[in-house]
């Protein structure tokens, strides 16, 4: 009798844990950050997706490290009055994508100092999506070092030819 009751209790306990676990997993998934990599002087798209909404209803705040104003869209219009100077002339949005629920932001001419977390707030829905940007030094193209090594090779070749021809020069 006791055993049965105990089993029933643990049984219900186990079942009641299942939704908790599911919610926990969903919460973890939701808070997991998207990671994006970019190179200095390059550009990157910071994605923010939600349900499609009519342009005039789009109000979105892009923020850097939670407080720096990267981009404001207020009732379907860009509002750059409070944009932080760090991002001046380096941002672009895509109003034509809003109907698809795509509120991505393009950041150009990347700098090392742009690395960090960006958030896309949709205040109406109380949604916050985070993107972690990591900007790396662009691997310098080999052109410079190649040409210098070429010139060194060229110098070596001339030296080699001079040495090779010098005995003949002696005879002349
Ligand atoms: C969202 O829009 C940007 C800019 O046009 C585009 O590059 C990106 O691929 C779009 N994302 C999706 C999932 O459609």
UniProtKB/TrEMBL annotation:
Keyword Transmembrane assigned: yes
One Pfam family this sequence matches: V-set
Gene3D superfamilies, sorted: Immunoglobulins (2.60.40.10)
Subcellular localization: Cell membrane
Record's signal peptide: 1-33
Residue ranges annotated for the Ig-like domain, each copy included: 19-134
Domain of life the protein comes from: Eukaryota
InterPro entries: Ig-like_dom (IPR007110), Ig-like_dom_sf (IPR036179), Ig-like_fold (IPR013783), Ig_sub (IPR003599), Ig_V-set (IPR013106), T-cell_Activation_Regulation (IPR051713)
Keywords, ordered alphabetically: Cell membrane, Disulfide bond, Glycoprotein, Immunoglobulin domain, Membrane, Receptor, Signal, Transmembrane, Transmembrane helix
Name the record gives this protein: Ig-like domain-containing protein
Single GO biological process annotation from the record: immune response
Topology within the bilayer: Single-pass type I membrane protein
A single Gene Ontology CC term: external side of plasma membrane
């Amino acid at each position: 009798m006791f055993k049965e009751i105990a089993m029933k209790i643990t049984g219900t306990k186990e079942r009641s844990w299942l939704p908790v676990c599911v919610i926990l997993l969903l919460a973890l998934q939701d808070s997991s950050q998207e990671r994006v990599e970019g190179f200095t002087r390059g550009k990157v798209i910071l994605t923010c997706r939600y349900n499609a909404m009519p342009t005039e209803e789009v109000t979105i705040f892009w923020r850097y490290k939670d407080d720096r104003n990267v981009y404001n869209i207020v009732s379907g219009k860009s509002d750059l009055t409070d944009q932080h100077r760090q991002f001046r002339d380096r941002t672009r949005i895509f109003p034509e994508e809003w109907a698809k629920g795509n509120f991505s932001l393009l950041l150009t001419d990347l700098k090392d100092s742009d690395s960090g977390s960006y958030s896309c707030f949709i205040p109406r829905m109380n949604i916050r999506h985070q993107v972690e940007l990591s900007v790396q030094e662009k691997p310098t193209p080999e052109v410079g070092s190649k040409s210098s090594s070429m010139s060194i090779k060229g110098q070596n070749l001339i030296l080699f030819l001079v040495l090779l021809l010098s005995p003949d020069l002696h005879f002349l």
